[in-house]
Design goal:
single chain, mainly alpha, DNA polymerase, domain 1, 2 domains
Length: 193
């Protein structure tokens, strides 16, 4: 695989030299130097042009989407696919998992969004026979740990300390019960009053 990447980098450098007459390696990132096969490159360009023409995405968003999709398509190539012939739902699932693990630890939602949209585009325009976008996993909500502010015993003690014989005490007791039973924040309770 390293030899394949080295060949692709050399091709990218030669392409730059042919196009601009010079090579400026300081301005090239390794990802930009890696080229997709012509078939995938053409699909990516068509997708970007369609998104711009239909005004679905801005020019900046299209560049972002194409960059993210390039990572997915490169991993598809590394898996041995140079077109979508023979690509199954299982293949897409495996490649998207691999792509997310390698490149998009924090931006998995963007990866899933753009790849799903790209695969749906391919299906809607008849470029693939199967809707491969259904293989995209649904992203789960991030795990949030909740902390209990008071124990049940502490809540009982707090409620017992309120003087319910006065109007202010009844109000305070109602506010404390509301907070204890619903978990509403102070600001939410104040907005109710």
């Amino acid at each position: 695989m390293r030899r394949y990447q080295a060949v692709r980098k050399v091709v990218a450098l030669l392409h730059e030299f042919h196009q601009y007459g010079s090579i400026t390696p300081a301005q090239l990132s390794p990802f930009d130097m890696v080229l997709l096969n012509p078939r995938f490159e053409a699909l990516l360009e068509e997708y970007g042009n369609d998104a711009l023409f239909s005004e679905k995405f801005s020019e900046f968003t299209v560049r972002t989407a194409k960059s993210i999709l390039k990572g997915f398509l490169l991993n598809l190539e590394y898996a041995g696919f140079f077109s979508f012939d023979g690509v199954t739902l299982s293949t897409v699932g495996d490649v998207i998992t691999q792509t997310a693990a390698k490149h998009y630890k924090r931006g998995t939602a963007s990866l899933l969004h753009y790849v799903r949209d790209f695969l749906k585009y391919l299906y809607e325009y008849g470029l693939v026979e199967t809707d491969l976008s259904v293989a995209m996993p649904k992203i789960a909500a991030p795990f949030r740990k909740t902390y209990q502010g008071f124990t049940d015993n502490e809540i009982r003690k707090l409620l017992a300390s309120v003087d319910c014989n006065t109007l202010v005490g009844k109000r305070d007791y109602a506010i404390m019960m509301l907070a204890a039973q619903t978990g509403l924040r102070k600001i939410d309770i104040l907005n109710l009053i």
